[in-house]
């Protein structure tokens, strides 16, 4: 009898544990969910409209060639509501399966949505939800969101490899404008000067073609200057060329020299920038020093390297100055000089700041020093090939 009791006492915990370890009862099988890759947000007639890009997971990797028609790669759905959350719940009404947001990689907003001071609602909605991540990239556009979200990468590539879903790949080849994710957006808007630069996108027309027809591809065409409360301005790339030379994360960019030279092309492979505030009483001036490492990519006629170096330094300095002045025209601290004072001299920043920004004038940027170093001529010497 004692042996029976002992066995029962030993087996009871094992018996009850088997119920706990029998499986995860609240999980959803992957093939029974619908995955949202991208979201578009518009605001019209006092209502939010949410566009959801749903991807076909069976087409995200290469498979063996099969007969029959090609499967649909993605579907775009949309719904409206008085609040962003209401619009999403209205979208759930027509969804055939549960929408999973854990793979959301980008959000595209229209200018109309940003002009209505809706960036706070957007951030609040996606920052609170447990499935979303801080790696979501943000973009602004004027184009119809349905067309933007239906744009596919060429050559039957996975939808996950689109310019919107994976912007870092193209950025490593040409660093024209830095991608911005949710974490970086929160930092930019919560710290001086409380402004962010979001990539501006559009659909290209006639740039790329297949053997049968032209295709419309996403292109980075400018930048949207944004505060917590409003969209300040959307400007094309050619109006803020100097912004790329103030980015320590620059991977690769091109310089074309034509002034006093035959056309010469340099490729920037490394950049280091230092911003120094010069404080006298409550007057603040700034010095910017940029060290640039380049390679000689194209040269048609023999030119002296010191002259090439000098012209490159003049060009970069002029572009940085022009970008700074254009930022002042739009009432924005586009080079984030206010943040330098905030980091290095908090006491002075508190005395002079207005809404988180240091008052800036055309004379505030006192000096720009650019040092260009040409290290080699890629596969050739530093002279014309022929």
UniProtKB/TrEMBL annotation:
The keyword Membrane applies. Its main location: membrane. GO terms for cellular component: membrane. GO terms for biological process: spore germination. Residues 26-202 form the Spore germination protein N-terminal domain. It is found in: Membrane. It is a lipid-anchor. Pfam families: Spore_GerAC, Spore_GerAC_N. Keywords: Germination, Lipoprotein, Membrane, Palmitate, Signal. The keyword Signal applies. Belongs to the GerABKC lipoprotein family. NCBIfam families: spore_ger_x_C (TIGR02887). This is Spore gernimation protein.
């Amino acid at each position: 009898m004692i042996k029976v009791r002992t066995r029962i006492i030993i087996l009871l915990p094992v018996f009850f544990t088997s119920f706990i370890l029998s499986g995860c009862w609240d999980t959803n099988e992957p093939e029974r969910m619908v995955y949202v890759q991208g979201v578009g947000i518009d605001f019209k007639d006092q209502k939010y409209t949410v566009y959801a890009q749903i991807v076909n997971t069976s087409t995200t990797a290469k498979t063996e060639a099969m007969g029959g028609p090609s499967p649909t790669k993605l579907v775009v759905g949309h719904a409206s509501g008085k609040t962003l959350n209401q619009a999403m719940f209205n979208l759930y009404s027509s969804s055939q399966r549960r929408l999973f947001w854990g793979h959301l990689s980008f959000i595209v907003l229209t200018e109309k949505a940003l002009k209505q001071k809706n960036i706070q609602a957007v951030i609040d909605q996606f920052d609170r939800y447990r499935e979303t991540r801080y790696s979501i990239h943000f973009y602004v556009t004027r184009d119809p969101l349905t067309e933007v979200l239906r744009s596919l990468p060429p050559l039957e590539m996975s939808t996950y490899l689109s310019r919107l879903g994976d912007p870092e790949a193209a950025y490593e080849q040409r660093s024209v404008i830095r991608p911005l994710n949710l974490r970086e957006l929160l930092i930019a808007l919560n710290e001086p000067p409380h402004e962010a630069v979001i990539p501006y996108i559009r659909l290209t027309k006639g740039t790329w073609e297949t053997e049968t027809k032209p295709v419309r591809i996403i292109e980075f065409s400018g930048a949207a200057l944004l505060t917590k409360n409003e969209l300040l301005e959307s400007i094309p790339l050619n109006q803020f060329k100097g912004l790329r030379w103030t980015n320590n994360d620059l991977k690769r960019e091109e310089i074309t020299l034509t002034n006093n030279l035959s056309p010469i092309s340099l490729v920037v492979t490394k950049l280091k920038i230092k911003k120094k505030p010069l404080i006298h009483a409550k007057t603040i001036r700034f010095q910017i020093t940029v060290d640039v490492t380049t390679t000689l990519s194209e040269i048609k006629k023999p030119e002296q390297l010191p002259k090439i170096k000098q012209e490159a330094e003049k060009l970069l300095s002029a572009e940085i100055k022009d970008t700074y002045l254009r930022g002042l025209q739009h009432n924005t601290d586009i080079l984030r000089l206010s943040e330098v004072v905030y980091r290095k001299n908090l006491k002075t920043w508190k005395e002079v700041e207005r809404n988180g920004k240091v008052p800036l004038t055309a004379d505030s940027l006192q000096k720009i020093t650019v040092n260009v170093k040409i290290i080699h001529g890629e596969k050739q010497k530093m002279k014309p090939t022929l």
